[in-house]
Model the fold of this input.
Amino acid sequence: MPELRKDPIVGRWVIISTERAKRPDQFGANFDPGPQELTPCPFCEGNESQTPKEIFSLRPKQAPANSPGWELRVVPSIGPFLRIEGSLDRRGKGVYDLTNGIGAHEVVIETSQHISNMADLPQEQILKVINCYIDRINDLERDKRFKYVLVFKNYGWTAGGSMIKHAKSQLIATPVNPKRVKEELAGAKQYFDFHERCIFCDLIKQELDSPERVVLDIDGFIAVVPFAPRFPFETWILPKKHSCDFAALENQNRGNLAEILRRVLLKLKTGLNDPPYNYVIHSAPFRRAKAGYWKSIDQDYHWHIEIIPRLTRVAGFEWGTGFYICPLSPEDAAKFLREVNA
Amino acid sequence: MPELRKDPIVGRWVIISTERAKRPDQFGANFDPGPQELTPCPFCEGNESQTPKEIFSLRPKQAPANSPGWELRVVPSIGPFLRIEGSLDRRGKGVYDLTNGIGAHEVVIETSQHISNMADLPQEQILKVINCYIDRINDLERDKRFKYVLVFKNYGWTAGGSMIKHAKSQLIATPVNPKRVKEELAGAKQYFDFHERCIFCDLIKQELDSPERVVLDIDGFIAVVPFAPRFPFETWILPKKHSCDFAALENQNRGNLAEILRRVLLKLKTGLNDPPYNYVIHSAPFRRAKAGYWKSIDQDYHWHIEIIPRLTRVAGFEWGTGFYICPLSPEDAAKFLREVNA
Done:
C-alpha cells in the first residue's frame, strides 16, 4: 500500500509509492553526461586569466591575486543571473510587480586541482570551502539591498552542472526572500507558536530515538533521509545544537560539518555510481531580528543542508500539485546509504 | 539588465535573465529520447488485452468493452501511485503525519492510432479527450474520499513520459488538496478580498489591452506567456469568461478549447523541434462551497491550463529558493510562438 506522508515543516505531501519498485542500487545508472567538457579548464591553477577577477582567494604563501598559488578562489559568475550594480527600483505594471535584477552571483572554485566531485576532496579542503561560504555570506550581508544568500551546488549535467567539470559551488544574493525559505519559516513558526519548541529540534530527537532514517550520526551533526522525501536518497544534514544561522557556526564545529558533508557525498558517489546532485543551504534571512513576521526566528528556525540526488524525472503531477512521488521508501534509502562503505 | 518579476497569483519571483541568451529557435534541440519504445504498443487498437480492464471508452458502434472498435479509452494505470481500495486512516507518528495512499490513477488513451503527440490529433479528437476529462472528473467527484483530481500530460522522456509513446494523459484523484492549487487559491482570495475582482480576469484584460505576451486570442479563450514564467515558452490557456471549475465548461465552448489547445501544442512542436512538455489543468477543488477558507472561490478563482515545455534544466537555485531563472523574456517567447505558422 502506498503512503501519503506530510513534510512536517512546509506541509508538502509526498507519495511514497514503491509499486514500480527498483532495488536501491538500481537507481544509480545511465546519467546524461551532457556536452563535452570545456578544455582547457578555466578553473584550474595556471588559468586564472580565463576567469573574471577574483573576489576572494586563499593564498597561504601570499601570491598575488589572479595568479597561481591558491587553494580556493571566488570569482563573479561569467553569466550572472543578477547584476551587482544599480538600484532595485521596485515598481508595478498593472497587476504585475517587478524590480531590476540586482543581486550577486559568485562561483566558489573549491580546489586548484582538476577534481569534479566535492566528495573526492580531502576533509580539510571541504572545511576551507565551508569557511569561505561563511566569509562570503558575512560580506554580502553588509549590502543592505540583499535579504538572502543562497549557497548551492549543481553537480552533473542533469543537476544543472556546466561544461566546466571542476568542483565548484555558487552563491546568489537576492533582494527578496526565497519562497521556499519563507515557507519553512512560516511552518516552523506555526509549530513553535503551538508547542514552544523548534520543530527541527523535535525532528532530530525523534530520528535519533528511532534511527531507521539516520544515515550518519556524528559529534554535532546528523544526516537523515527525511520522513517525506521528494526524491530517492534525498538527505538532510542538521546541526544537533539549535541555531537558525549557518554563518554563526562556531569555528570548532566546522570540521565536523566538513566530515559529515564529505561522508554523505561519498556514500552517494560510491553507492549510486556517481550520480548528479544538488545541495542547498537553508539558513535564516539577513537582519532577521527586524523582519517582522519571523520575529521569533532565532528560537524556531534551524539551518540545514538539503542534498538532492537527481535520479528521477519531475513530471506533470509534481508541477501541477507541488507534491512529489518518491519511488523508494526513506527507510530503505537510509539503510542502503548506512551500509555503503564510505 | 536582468529583471525580477513576481507572479501576481502565488507571489513567486522569477529572474528573467537573458545574459546567456539564445535565440528563441535555439531552445529546441537535442532532447533525450529515453529508452527504446515498448513494442507492440499496448495502447493501440487490437491490443486491448495488454491493458487493465477499461473504466470508460467511446465506442460509436457499441463494440463490447476491451475489444477493438473504440475512439478513446480510459484504463487504470498499470503502476498506480495511489490505490483505489481502502480507507485513508490518517494518523500521526511523533511530529509526522501520514495516511494510506488512497486515490485513483487513470490513463486516458487519446486515440486508437499510434500517434504520440496530441498536437497531431485532429481537433474533433481533442474535443473527445476534453469531454472525457470532464466525465471522469465528475465521476471521481462522487467518491467522498477525494478532494481533487489533477489532469496532466507528460509528453517526451525528459517530461516524465513513458516507454509507451502513444498519446495519453493522466488523472490522479487525491485525498488532500494540492499545495500548488492551495497557493493559487490563497493568492487569488487575497487579491479578491482587496479589489473585489478576480485576479485572473484582471490579468486577461491587461494582456488583451497590451497583447505583447498573447500567443492566441480566439473566441472564448486566450493563450498567453505569463508575465513571470518559470520556463521559456511556458504558456497558459485561460477561458475569457470567469469560471472556477473546468468541469463546468459548457458544451458549446469545448470545441474552442480543443482548438486553442491543439494550436498551441502544434506551435510548440513546429517551432521548437517537437520538444518534451507537460500540461496541467488547475481547477477549483471538489465541494468548494463547503471548503471554509476558500468560501468565495466561485468569484475569485479561475481555472486554466499551464503548458510547460521542458527545454531547460532545474538546478540547485530553483530547489533552494522556489524561484526560477528564465533565460528568455516572455515577450520574445510569445512573439516567436505567434509567428510560428501552425
